[in-house]
Amino acid sequence: MKAFSITLQAAALAAACLAGAPAMAQHAGAEHAQHGAAAASAETTEGEVKKVDKASGKLTIKHGELKNLGMGAMTMVFRAKDTAMLDQVKAGDKIRFTAENVNGALTVTTLEVVQ
């Protein structure tokens, strides 16, 4: 009877492990999906600088779709992650940039002037 009890416990343990396998696979899939979201956040967007406000550390940009933020094309104000970016551009410059939501503020995190 003791051997039967041990066998039954082993079978229950094996069943519990197998039952958890799909959940673990789903978790791993979720991690890969999050990685994909991070990659999407790195996408650059083209735009045109409309205004540079060095005093407030902000840029006004007319831009294309910002897929990582779920926003369509429009003109809007962004914070500059690094105020040195503001010295690189002037109104009328065509740019390629990355914008992200940093602590609730839409922020330009990368910026390059397009010739």
TrEMBL record:
Annotated region described as Disordered, given as residue ranges: 28-53
PROSITE patterns the record matches: PROKAR_LIPOPROTEIN
Domain of life: Bacteria
Keyword entries, A-Z: Signal
First and last residue of the signal peptide: 1-25
Keyword Signal among UniProt keywords: yes
Comp. bias intervals (Low complexity): 35-44
Pfam family name, one: CusF_Ec
Name listed for the protein in its UniProt record: RND transporter
Originating organism: Massilia eburnea
